[in-house]
Amino acid sequence: MQRAVLIGCGAMSRAWLAAAKTIDNLQIVGLADINPDAARARAAEFELGDIVIATNIEDLIAEARPDVVFDVVIPGARHHIVSTALAAGCHVLSEKPMAETLDQARDLIARARAAGKLHVVVQNRRYLEGVRRIRNAIEAGAIGDVTSIHCDFFLAPHFGGFRETMDHVLLLDMAIHTFDAARFMSANVPEAVYCREWNPKNSWYKQGSSAAAIFEFGDGVIFNYRGSWCADGLMTSWESAWRIVGTRGTLVWDGHQDIRAEVAGQAIDGLFSEVAASEIPPLAESDRTGGHLGVMQDFIAATRGGPEPETVGHQNINSLAMVFGAIESAETGRRVEITI
């Protein structure tokens, strides 16, 4: 039986504990939070019994002796939590972002390698059926070679709490999901970005609730992102609305269930060509879905000798670099080259 602990018993911890309860031979043996009553409440809610309750990672590990640590703390505490867990010989699954800075992310990658342990990040959008099917369609050549990716994200959530007082709130807290999905679907890596960030006059956020960014990927591919967290009316899905243009045609996804593609055929009037529907492949038998649960399943399987998860830290840093590149560009007003 594998022993697991979770630190950070806020709202997100519910999804983590619900997923963990479905995995065979995994036992939650401890919870921690700076507010011990929050940890006790989660333990009672999920009927975890007589487990270790702590207020810090050191006591949690010393008393519970876990094999794996689930890190659901705020980004500012992440480096300490992950480095402490790795030093204690634990594998770690973290909430996003994997670090507050690229230097911290590089350090955590080095620490995980030195410890011979996994540090994996929850990029649960990769595990959505739509994202997987689009990746399969692109790999199958459904629209030819990708030349550009266009993404719209327009919602108006009133979270309250820390998000509404954050700097760069859209880019730092949410956009990494979209950036990571674009990187995954196109099987490409970011090279540079130009970004403009603003806060509309109707915004209830402190700063940076809206942004537009143009990323340069390898092979001349352009990724165009437009987003806002204070856009009431005609909202997109949480997964964004996508248009992916290729050398043979175009694929669109509404972020829900509607994925369509068309490819060009013969010219019909000298101005436009005929178009025909291009089949979107179904999920492959090997495709992992399930959102949050899918990430956790791959992580636990890897700790038991399975393949390395695709959202492991040394891969996920590419998506984090997109976020910090966009923020640097927004702050400086210039094009920024992305390096890791």
TrEMBL record:
Residues 131-251 form the GFO/IDH/MocA-like oxidoreductase domain. One of its GO terms (molecular function) is nucleotide binding. Signal peptide: none annotated. Gene3D superfamilies: Dihydrodipicolinate Reductase, domain 2, NAD(P)-binding Rossmann-like Domain. InterPro entries: Gfo/Idh/MocA-like_OxRdtase_N, Gfo/Idh/MocA_oxidoreduct, GFO_IDH_MocA-like_dom, NAD(P)-bd_dom_sf. It comes from the Bacteria. Residues 3-119 form the Gfo/Idh/MocA-like oxidoreductase N-terminal domain. SUPFAM superfamilies: Glyceraldehyde-3-phosphate dehydrogenase-like, C-terminal domain, NAD(P)-binding Rossmann-fold domains. This is Gfo/Idh/MocA family oxidoreductase. It comes from Kaistia nematophila.
